[in-house]
Write a structure and sequence with these properties.
By secondary structure, this protein is mainly β. The protein has one domain. The protein has 2 helices and 17 strands. It is globular and about 55 Å long.
Length: 302
């Protein structure tokens, strides 16, 4: 019994926060877009984008992939419920994997954010980001077990290092990293503005205190949009905070895939292709490039 109690105490100490209490932390969705049966088909939405983003004082071309898929989470451990022992409590989530690759000179920025939100409300559950290039690695992690979780960050930059910050997740707060999913949960037929507070994006090679900022989210009228994937009737959603403004264009037809994103920093995303697929099973040589761009590999002589 003493040994069991010691083990339980050790597990508890691994987390500085209490077991999951996923109450009203963060702003909720307006529509049932992600409660539709489409998301129960066993596939992920895999959308590939041609992008540009500023690096070292100039715009650099790259590519990004946004993967959205329904998963069952262990509601206590906040990990995928696929372990050998079924968890006592489960939670349906949507996972957004945002993968971004930007070549610069002799090295390439490879960055990824995993954002987990409740399927029923799109309120945040977990956020993990990482950024790698030849200088080093930066990563962040936040588990939402209350309305005031802790964001932990680790950076190779000397002025940043390892830090922990409390995050205010009131009922009007949205994670900027979650916007490609959260905005799709708006009632896109209802034009006009909504007021929110944003936790700044953590998908970066730098870390900064996650101080919330006031923002306005405005849904506009449908407009024609041309991207490499084709022509779309799209609904623009403008997110404004201070002098910065991002404009997201979502397909007017359900499930409202992001087709264009004009970023506040002058960069952009343009949809190149989108399809539903079980990407986790597509790991054979015959699958290379099947769902969008990837790194060019040199031929190796035998």
């Amino acid at each position: 019994m003493r040994r069991l109690s010691t083990a339980a105490l050790a597990l508890a100490l691994l987390s500085c926060e209490a077991p999951a209490d996923l109450g009203p932390a963060g702003a909720a969705a307006e529509s049932d877009t992600f409660r539709q049966p489409l998301w129960d088909d066993g596939n992920a939405e895999v959308a590939s984008y041609a992008i540009q983003e500023p690096r070292y004082g100039t715009m650099r071309a790259g590519w990004a992939t946004l993967i959205v898929v329904k998963e069952t989470f262990d509601a206590d451990a906040l990990v995928k419920a696929d372990g050998p022992v079924p968890p006592a409590n489960t939670l349906e989530v949507l996972k957004l994997n945002h993968v971004r690759t930007t070549p610069t000179g002799v090295y390439t920025y490879r960055q990824m954010a995993s954002v987990f939100v409740r399927r029923d409300s799109l309120r945040p559950v977990k956020l993990v980001t990482s950024s790698q290039e030849w200088c080093g690695i930066t990563h962040t992690r936040m588990e939402v077990r209350s309305a005031r979780p802790t964001l932990r960050s680790s950076s190779y930059f000397g002025a940043e290092g390892d830090r922990a910050h409390p995050v205010d997740l009131g009922e009007d707060v949205v994670l900027e990293d979650a916007l490609p999913v959260w905005l799709r949960g708006l009632d896109l037929t209802r034009t006009g503005a909504r007021s929110v507070r944003l936790v700044p994006a953590q998908l970066s090679s730098h870390t900064a205190p996650p101080t919330t900022v006031d923002a306005t989210v405005e849904v506009g009228a449908p407009t024609a949009v041309e991207v490499p994937a084709g022509s779309f009737e799209a609904i623009p959603v403008t997110v404004t905070r201070g002098e910065d403004r991002d404009v997201f264009h979502f397909d007017a037809a359900a499930p409202h895939t992001l087709v264009r994103w004009d970023r506040a920093d002058g960069g952009f995303y343009r949809l190149a292709r989108v399809e539903r697929a079980p990407y986790w099973r597509m790991n054979g040589e015959e699958h290379v490039g099947a769902l969008g761009p990837g790194p060019a590999l040199p031929e190796i002589a035998e």
